Amino acid sequence: MASNSIFRELPRDIAAVVFHGKSYIFFVNSNHELCYLRSPQGSNKDFEHHIVEVKNGNLKVKCGSRQVAAMAWMGDKQQEIRIYCVAPEDGQCEKRGYIQEVAFNRANGWELGTLGYDDPKQWIDSDASLSSCALVWPDKPNQPDLSLFVSGKDQRGCPKVARYFYDWHTNSGTWVEDGVISKKVSNW
Length: 188
Fold this sequence. Notes:
Number of strands: 13
Structural class: mainly beta
């Protein structure tokens, strides 16, 4: 459990999921740490606050980025959580940012996910907005459709929204950029 002193201001962005009957609300605190509030047995009273601590690396969120996206789903064997944030290049807060996935299940605990941990990194705008979703198919409960949507600007400075998806069939599973999905939008 984290100290109250790291929660000096309200989060600018939050993302919530339900995992094993408890609500989890994810956000980035003022120390650039990925955090969450967890409800006691699904209740909305006295949420516990925690800092996400991964066991396979260091996790720091890029300075100025407070964006976070989260999804949860029930697979055939266990429930999963995935969180997405903007991590800084080489762990240095002022450098450019890339998408970092953080994964959780009861068997493995918190760990860095393949998106961001593996190369190549997906570099994005520092003020990007993130949103994610999971769709579990009855005939493939261990291979849900995972999608991450990212807003930002293209090389010409024009607004765009890009989609990334998890391809279960390439290299035993990898994240793939589907491309810009907002080309028909002319007036933002």
